[in-house]
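Hey team,

Filing this mostly as a record. A colleague (T.K.) asked me to run one chain through the structure pipeline before their review meeting, and I want the input and output archived in the tracker in case anyone asks later how it was produced. No errors, nothing strange. Just documentation.

Input sequence:
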Amino acid sequence: MTPLCELAIKHSCNRGGHHTRGGEPCHDYTPKYFKLFELSAPFVQRVLEIGVNSGAGLRMWAEFFPNAFIHGVDINPGCLFHEKRITTTQGNQGDAGSLIQALPVQAPVWDFIVDDGAHDWPSQKTAMLTLLPYMTGDGVYATEDLTEVESTILAAVPPAYAGHVYDIPNGAGGGSARLLIVRRKQYDGY
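Output structure:
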């Protein structure tokens, strides 16, 4: 179990840690994320997450990335909140204009962008194509809970980027979830 898995448990986040939340098994994304950021976590400055829900994921990221500004975007105004280094705004990931309006900084400053929002491919694809230009040169873009076939997903990744789809086992209870990781080709280490 990685330190990020332990933070997922601490913050009741469904991303990992071999536990259940509300009786549902959690996905086991945290080992993959830990491997991606194990050495660079102190240097990450800005994290953007689509899908706020209870805020557990944002709080987990805030603790894992100790020097980062964390921003969440959600279509539901009822889940928006602000804490120390965490801000949230309303936005629709399926609408490029709405998504751009929800960004507090509209420049390529995001070191890590994670989509845990609508979980439908048309919205996930819109978010990815809209937000990749706002990612730093060596940034990481992740889309969780994919339902589309791998060939369709990878065909949507722009030519300057490399994408990889992973089947991630659920940490407690079997089954699996799919995760897309996208980076600029010159930084692709997978």
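Quick notes for T.K.: The CA atoms of residues 142 and 181 lie 5 Å apart. The domain at 40-187 is CATH 3.40.50.150 (Rossmann fold).
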